[in-house]
Design a protein that fits this description.
- The two termini are about 40 Å apart.
- The longest helix is centred in the C-terminal third of the chain and has 32 residues.
- The chain contains five helices and eight strands.
- A hairpin with a 2-residue loop joins strand 1 and strand 2.
- By secondary structure, the chain is of the alpha/beta class.
């Protein structure tokens, strides 16, 4: 896995022998909560909400390039199908009661003409994830991603809603996987056009 030029916080592996053009379907296994050593403990209902949010983000992103099917539809052969497995490895919720003071202080300083730079919220939240896409028939790894995303100070709603920044992290991780597949397909189309000029 290597860092990508446009995504320096992400580690990405892409199989050098991948032929993305042969894949038409994707089956997405249920997302798991696989916490790292220092990850917080989640209540079962929060775990269920977060894994569902990540699964939904994957479905939405990968549906741009593939037909999303259920595991039952994949049986028995899974031909021309990619299987995606994903895990949330860490998650932090935003804590509005800690974030409020620096945000209000920043607004107050700006209102009186103070030149004080904005104070970043101390508990912005975020999440880290691992994703792997394999050939559903052979099990060969096609793409693997390890990534994280922290809350951004300018995303105001994320400072108040407990897991808004985590959901943003899920969306960005899903879009990164879709982007990698899209780049491969685009590159393959370019190579075919170059080899068979009209």
């Amino acid at each position: 896995m290597v860092h990508q030029k446009d995504h320096t916080d992400d580690l990405v592996y892409v199989s050098p022998t991948i032929d993305a053009s042969k894949y038409h379907f994707v089956v997405i296994d249920p997302v798991t909560w696989h916490p790292a050593a220092k990850a917080p403990k989640l209540k079962p209902e929060a775990e269920a909400r977060m894994t569902k949010a990540f699964h939904d983000a994957l479905v939405k992103a990968l549906a741009h390039d593939f037909r999303v099917i259920t595991p039952e539809e994949c049986e028995p052969t899974c031909a021309n199908t990619i299987r995606v497995r994903a895990a949330i490895t860490n998650i932090r919720r935003s804590k509005w009661y800690y974030n409020a003071l620096p945000i209000v202080a920043g607004f107050a300083a700006g209102a009186v003409g103070g030149g004080v730079p904005p104070i970043p919220p101390p508990f912005p939240g975020g999440a880290s994830e691992e994703l792997v896409a394999t050939d559903a028939t052979t099990g060969e790894t096609l793409i693997a991603i390890s990534t994280y995303n922290n809350g951004m100070p300018w995303n105001m709603m994320g400072q108040w809603l407990p897991y808004a920044h985590a959901k943003r992290a899920f969306r960005l991780a899903s879009e990164l996987m879709e982007e990698e597949f899209h780049k491969i397909k685009k590159n393959e189309s370019t190579q075919v056009a170059f080899q068979n000029p009209s």
